[in-house]
Amino acid sequence: MMKKHSQWSIVIVFIVLVLAMGLAESLLRDHPVFFKPANLSNILLQTSINTIIAVGMTLIIITAGIDLSVGSLLALCNVVMGLTMLHVGAELASFQIILGCLMAIVAGSTVGWFNGSVSHRWNIPPFIVTLGMLGVARGLALWLIDSQTENLIGQVPAGFFALGNQTLLGIPISAWIALIVVGAGHVILNYTPLGRYAIAIGANEQAAHLAGIRVGRIKVLIYTLGGLLVGVAAIIQTSRLGSANPTIGAGFELFAIAAVIIGGTSLMGGRGTIIGTLVGALIIGVLNNGLTLLNIPDEIKQIVIGLVIILAVLIDRIRQNAKGAS
Fold first, then answer.
1. 3: alpha, beta or left, given left = phi > 0 and alpha = psi -120 to 50?
2. Residue boundaries of the structural domains of the chain
3. Are 133 and 72 in contact, with CB atoms under 8 Å apart?
């Protein structure tokens, strides 16, 4: 786990970034909108998907693992959900939505379980397994829907689309869901055996095994939970887009990993916080939004986010070396 001063330093970075983006926009645009409620709500809406995925990614990285398949898995869950709802039909409104959501969660959990099981059982690095699954999940999504985008608006009850587009008390409903996921992830990591075992495995897997921790079972459970959360994110994304689209989610693995690393979780495993990940996701969201308002091209935004990731890893490495030297 991170020390409290490290968590506060991330919060300070976030506050400075928000102020810097707001100031830059006010200087460069005639009609600044960064601090307007509508734009702040839009940042929360855009950040909610990444936050939910990043909570699962945090638990995975704390075990010294990685999951590169989450972007493609988001698309697969979206397609499975969309096709399920279209197959059931709007005449069974409530059942249509419930079954669609259930299938998205089942699809995500199944792929997560597969990633964890194959990696542990055959002793294959999770980087390799999930890199392969990145292609498999995307290919399945394209195959299932014949590389087409299916419109769900008018074929699914209108209330379903409120989940990803409406607000509650001025805050997007998706952001409330993300906060619930963050709270649950924080409790799991800090107050349950699963969280303690995950930290122990990431810190020293061999020592954890000798201490009686069932390392394989914990890893599979963590990857399954990560896939489940991708399914939850897919439900919100489907509601937000109003379609089943096999091309969504490209690059989401980058954003999720970036949020986790910026939030202070060590890529070496054994240390990290869910709250830090939330702040990291907000930093990515503010960067994306602010650079967009400043009319920065997408390719430049990718360069900036990539440099931020490298900087975060470099800071983590320096911190680890300093800790080892002391």
1. beta
2. 58-289+299-307
3. yes
Cα 62 from Cα 145, distance rounded (Å): 35
In whole angstroms, give the CA distance from residue 316 to residue 244: 39
Per DSSP, what are the bridge partners of residue 150?
A: 244
* Neighbouring C-beta atoms of residue 302, cutoff 10 Å: 12
Percent composition of the chain: helix, strand, coil (DSSP 3-state, to 5) = 75, 5, 20
Q: Are strands 243-244 and 150-151 parallel, antiparallel or unpaired?
A: antiparallel
What's the pLDDT tens digit per position in 128-142? 999 999 999 999 999
Task: Give the distance between the most distant pair of CA atoms in the chain.
Answer: 67
Residue 177 tokens read as 């869901």
Phi, psi for 156 (deg, rounded to 5): -130, 140
d(CA 254, CA 74): 13
The pairs formed by 146-149 with CB atoms below 8 angstroms and a separation of 24 or more are 147/246, 148/246, 149/243, 149/244, 149/245, 149/246, 149/247
Pair of tokens at residue 80: 């499975």
Q: Are 52 and 232 in contact (CB under 8 A)?
A: yes
Instruction: For residue 267, report the phi and psi dihedrals to the nearest 5 degrees.
Output: -65, -20
pLDDT of residue 2: 52
